[in-house]
Each structure stands twice: as structure tokens, then as C-alpha cells.
Design brief:
Protein name: PAS domain S-box-containing protein/diguanylate cyclase (GGDEF) domain-containing protein
Domain EAL: 23-277
Distance between the termini: 54 Å
Bound molecules: ligand C2E, calcium ion
Shape: globular
Radius of gyration: 20 Å
Number of helices: 12
Length: 279
């Protein structure tokens, strides 16, 4: 009866979902999303500031719900994390994304890198590194083509398991990026001894550019910091030309945001990559 597709039933279920009055139904829907093929990957370009070429594609997960439409990850990832679903969700993302990237490589249209978000919960799994290296090998992808986006917590938390994993991944050539930099209220000490290649400045600090003095100060000192540490910098959430021009002029390496491209599905991404190739 739970799987009934009767119109009344579906409507009842979706209203509950929308209002989140029935978190159990929502959670059950999420549990079934994988097997029902309702999850989908979108891709957003990271643009090299100087050449304006696509350096990487960031993989962004979507839940395409049959009645509610597209549900953004902020709505369901925290839930997946709390209820033990994140490991399988993350594993699925990794498999799908690498398979698709390998296909674009075969077509000769792939950018230099594919960037994948990793939940701290997923990273904690003892199988994470092994699964990842196997997926790279199965798809014949060079580790240096992969960028993992991790939030500060993974780097800051001084446990030896995390440290070992970060070092192992780095020694294999996988690129490690700090996502949402500046939002975690953490110290900078970890940057000194951890294998970090890249830092992503959160949209919160990009929003007020180029006018807001506080945003300018934060962005400029982050860029100086990264120059000193030989890390590359991505600015997130760049929505207009003024922001892009300012960031380029200040020496930011990569720009990501609606100004250069919204996240789009696999098909549209493929079209864009092929079109760029023939230009
Ligand atoms: P994030 O990693 O910081 O990703 C950037 C978010 O900003 C994305 O939201 C993207 O669509 C949005 N964005 C990009 N450019 C602009 C812009 O110019 N303006 C504005 N206003 N927004 C912009 P999205 O796709 O809803 O993802 C939200 C978060 O969910 C991500 O934040 C990431 O933390 C998480 N997430 C997404 N996919 C995955 C995944 O496969 N695994 C894990 N663990 N987390 C994921
Ligand atoms: Ca990210
Ligand atoms: Ca981010
Ligand atoms: Ca963010």
C-alpha cells in the first residue's frame, strides 16, 4: 500500500513533504530516491579567471521528485547525514560523476578536473579512500583530475584517521579543496601542515564586491594568504561582471557562479562542452 500510486495518496504524501510536517515520510522518500532513480547530478563550471576557459566542473546533487520537482541538496543532505544515508548517497555520486567524466574524456570534451563535494560523514567512513581509488581506476581517470571539496571541519579536527586519509589522497595526486572557506570560525593553523591545494571563498564574502569594504578586506587578505601558501583560490557565487573583473584583477585563479554558468544537468553540460570544443 505504501507504494500505491493512487492520485490521492501521492498528493497527501507530497503535501506532507512540502510542509515537512511529516519528516518520516520525507525520510522514507529519500531512502527510496536512489532505487527510484530520482537522484540526478548537475554540473557547474569553474572558470579560469584569465583565459575564461572551463577548468573544472563541480558536481551538484539534485533530488528530482515526481510531484515536488527539484529539491536542492541543502534540504536533504543534512537529513541523509543524520540518518545514515550519506555514505551510500556519496558513494553513488562518486560512481556516477566519475563515469560521466570518463565519458566526456573519451569524447575529448572534458575539462581538466571534476570537483566532487564530500560530506564529513562520508569522509569518516573507513572505506572512503579505498572506494574512491577503485572508482578512479575502474574509470581510468588520473587522480590529478579529481578535486575533492571538503569543509573546514575535516581539516581542523585533529584526528589521526582524517590526517592519514588526507595525506594518502594527496600522495596519490588527488587535489584537496577547502569549501566555504571563512564560514567555519576556525583558526588558520591547519593550513600550515595539511595537504591543501585549493581554497574556495564562500559566496557570503563575494556578494558585496567590489563596493563593500569588509568583503574586500576579507577577500584580498585571503588571496594574499593563498599566494603565500601556494594554494589556488576559487571565488564562489560570482553573479556579475563587476565581481568577476574585480576578482580577476586581484589575482583570483578561478571564478564560479551564475555569471559564467548555473548548474545544469548532464545533457546540457555535454552540449556546452561539445559546443566549446568546436568553437
Ligand atoms: P556548495 O558546495 O557551496 O555549492 C555551491 C552552491 O551555490 C550550489 O548550491 C550552487 O548551485 C550555488 N551557486 C553557484 N553559483 C551561484 C551564484 O552565483 N549565486 C548563488 N546564489 N548561488 C550559486 P546547491 O547546488 O543547492 O548545493 C548546496 C550545497 O549542497 C553545496 O554547497 C554542497 O555543500 C552541498 N552539496 C551539493 N551536492 C553535493 C554532493 O554531491 N555531496 C555532498 N556531500 N554535498 C553536496
Ligand atoms: Ca562545493
Ligand atoms: Ca562552497
Ligand atoms: Ca556553500
Amino acid at each position: 500500500a505504501a507504494k500505491s500510486k493512487g492520485a490521492g495518496k501521492t498528493r497527501f504524501f507530497s503535501e506532507d513533504l512540502r510542509s515537512e510536517k511529516n519528516p518520516l515520510a520525507y525520510l522514507q522518500g529519500l531512502r527510496e530516491a536512489l532505487s527510484k532513480n530520482e537522484l540526478s547530478l548537475f554540473y557547474q563550471p569553474l572558470i579560469a579567471a584569465n583565459t575564461e576557459e572551463i577548468h573544472a566542473l563541480e558536481v551538484l546533487l539534485r533530488w528530482i521528485h515526481p510531484t515536488l520537482g527539484t529539491i536542492p541538496p541543502d534540504h536533504f543532505i543534512p537529513l541523509a547525514e543524520r540518518h545514515g544515508l550519506m555514505e551510500s548517497l556519496g558513494h553513488w555520486v562518486m560512481q556516477q560523476a566519475l563515469k560521466q567524466y570518463a565519458q566526456w574524456q573519451k569524447e575529448g570534451v572534458a575539462p581538466a578536473c571534476i570537483a566532487i563535494n564530500v560530506s564529513p560523514i562520508e569522509f569518516q567512513s573507513e572505506y572512503f579512500v579505498g572506494n574512491l581509488l577503485k572508482a578512479l581506476e575502474d574509470n581510468q581517470i588520473e587522480p590529478s583530475c579529481l578535486e575533492l571539496e571538503l569543509t573546514e571541519g575535516v581539516f581542523v579536527e585533529q584526528n589521526s584517521a582524517n590526517l592519514e586519509k588526507l595525506n594518502e589522497l594527496s600522495s596519490r595526486g588527488v587535489n584537496l579543496a577547502i569549501d566555504d572557506f571563512g564560514t567555519g570560525y576556525s583558526s588558520l593553523a591547519y593550513l600550515k601542515h595539511l595537504p591543501v591545494n585549493q581554497l574556495k571563498i564562500d559566496r557570503a564574502f563575494v556578494k558585496g564586491l567590489p563596493k563593500n569594504q569588509a568583503d574586500k578586506a576579507i577577500v584580498e587578505s585571503t588571496l594574499a594568504l593563498c599566494r603565500g601558501l601556494k594554494m589556488s583560490v576559487v571565488a564562489e557565487g560570482v553573479e556579475n561582471k563587476e565581481q568577476a573583473d574585480y576578482l580577476r584583477q586581484e589575482g583570483c585563479d578561478f571564478i564560479q557562479g551564475y555569471f559564467y554558468g548555473r548548474p545544469v544537468d548532464t545533457e546540457q553540460t555535454g552540449l556546452r562542452l561539445r559546443k566549446l570544443k568546436t568553437q
